[in-house]
Amino acid sequence: MADLLLQIAPPKTTKPKKVLCLLPSSSFDPTETSLPYTYLTNAGHSVTFATPDGLPAQCDPRMLDGRDLPWLWKTLLRCDPLSAQAYAQLVLSESFLHPAKYADVAPAEYDALVLPGGHDATGMVPYLEDSNLQTVIVPHFFAGGKPVGAICHGTLLAGRSKDASGNGKSCLFGRRTTGLRWDQEWTAYLLTFCTLGLYYRTYPAISHQADLQSHLERPSDYEGGPIPINRDTPADLRSGFVVRDGKYLSARWPGDANLFSLRFCELLEEE
How far, CA to CA in Å, does 128 sit from each of 35, 207, 228? Predict the structure, then answer.
């Protein structure tokens, strides 16, 4: 099998950074975690993972093997070969196998933060609603002007996190962001509800986009970008879409992960 990871060759850093990546106990999207990890480590940065219990996180297995997904849409919805190979390498790494515990994280020890996403409510809801993440860890990075990268439902964790000043507003209040579009969420749900039910609706009562917009100063601070059809690749980033506002970088779905990862590496070079 060809080593597809040779395609991921970001410029080598001369200023290595310590990056914290927060994961739920289960259900995280493998692409949204493995590609940022691969880009960052290939560039020369170190990545520390943190989970609720200090045990290795479990990804959403359906995103790896496509089980129960409609056969016409498996190629689009599950990992592509590059992401699958990146994930296979990720789970063998020492940093993934030996994560920190949320409660033991000292955010001041890190230079940057990555917030991957996922949509299966089993593991994602506890992650998105964790009070320590919302009030201590995530706010530290925004307050300190440190780089924060969030993709898919990771943007919702950023949106629900509270400004460290104590004003009760979101860390994203006054910032521009993207995140999973409502039409992406509903299309995936409609394509799969006969076999998977609410699998693609993390919160059945509200779309990801509407939830995220509720934390912003203005709904128009959310930018959905063009309708996503294809996933980006290291060689062709045109399908990817990201929004940068200062030191905050956001993306919508796994199909943006190559562009997101490369732009986050570039952001770290500015520090």
Answer: 21, 14, 24
CB 52 within 8 A of CB 102: yes
Q: Is 6 among the domain residues?
A: no
- On whether residue 39 sits in a domain, the answer given is yes
Q: Are 215 and 160 contacting, i.e. CB atoms less than 8 angstroms apart? A: yes
Q: Is 199 contained in some domain?
A: yes
Q: What is the CATH number of the domain that holds 244?
A: 3.40.50.880
Residue 1 has pLDDT above 80, yes or no: no
For 207, the token pair is 């779309």
- Total domains in the fold of the chain: 1
Residue 1 within a domain: no
- Going along 135-251, which residue ranges are E strands? 148-151, 242-245, 248-251
Q: Which are the contacts of 218, defined by CB distance < 8 A and separation ≥ 6?
A: none
164 three-class SS: coil
- Give the range of the structural domain holding residue 247, as residue numbers without chain letter: 17-269
Cα–Cα distance measured from residue 36 to residue 139, given in angstroms and rounded to the nearest whole number: 21
What single-letter DSSP state applies at residue 117? Answer: -
Write the DSSP symbol of residue 27: E
Q: How many CA atoms lie within 13 A of 16 on its CB side?
A: 7
Contact 110, 46 (CB under 8 A): no
Q: Is residue 143 pLDDT above 60, yes or no?
A: yes
Q: Where are the alpha helices (DSSP H) in 60-181?
A: 62-65, 74-77, 81-90, 94-97, 121-128, 131-132, 138-143, 154-160
Tell me the pLDDT tens digit for each residue of 102-134: 999 999 999 999 999 999 999 999 999 999 999
The pTM assigned to this predicted structure is 0.97
